[in-house]
Amino acid sequence: MALSEDKAIGAVYVVLSVLLLTIYVIILKIIKSPVPLFSSPVFCIMFHMGIIDCIQLSVHTIGGIFSLAQSTFDPWANKIFGGIVNGTWIGVGPFTLLLALNRLVLVCFPAKMGIFFHKRALLAQLVVCWSFPSMFFIMYMTPLCGVIYNITSFGWEYDESPWSQTVSDVELYSLSFMLARTIKVHMTSVSTRNYVKINGTEAKILIQAVVITFYTTTFLVGWHVYGLYLPDWKWAEFFFNLMWIFNCGIYPCLHITLIP
């Protein structure tokens, strides 16, 4: 019975991840289409956020396969996939903050958009955003720390390496700082929105950014502190892993509902 249960959970991961990934790829193709609207810096940032989410969804699909097969096949493959999925998850922080800053400049200082988000400045910002998850990925590839898929608890988690707890704490505090700053920036943008008129599409993008930030913050806090409030059982891990998958897929869902 337990084996069938485990495989059913693996099937849920695979089906949900593939479904969201398929929708996401379609949306990313639309964003890269030669439409003037999609040439703005905000869509470039959202495209890179989409790449990060698609990478996570791809690895969540692999996690589902691990549960279906009841095997991670190879310890190094498990470690590499874990490093990729957690590294890209950490990348959500800087990209979400960058998106919030883009919205803030648009709403509060529209005349400065060409200064803060011209091509070279945007490229530099994207490089900085990508460097943050890359540093974590490099750390995950060392013997000092790692993230692996645990078949018995249906999810990705830090292993028992010497620095794993420390790196987990660094992840929590650094992302908490970024998301707190992001929320502050959004609060400023939303309050200013009452006095500054922006077009409908830009307003919808602002709504997207706010929703994504609050969902990501909820997931981050829940993932790191659920052990303090919930019993140590596999269904808690399953629930938060589902939240993680939905966190990767929240943008395409919002895109479909908010942007024609």
TrEMBL record:
Keywords attached to this entry: Membrane, Transmembrane, Transmembrane helix
Transmembrane segments: 12-31, 43-69, 89-109, 121-152, 205-226, 238-259
Superkingdom: Eukaryota
Signal peptide positions (record): none
Protein name: 7TM GPCR serpentine receptor class x (Srx) domain-containing protein
Organism: Steinernema hermaphroditum
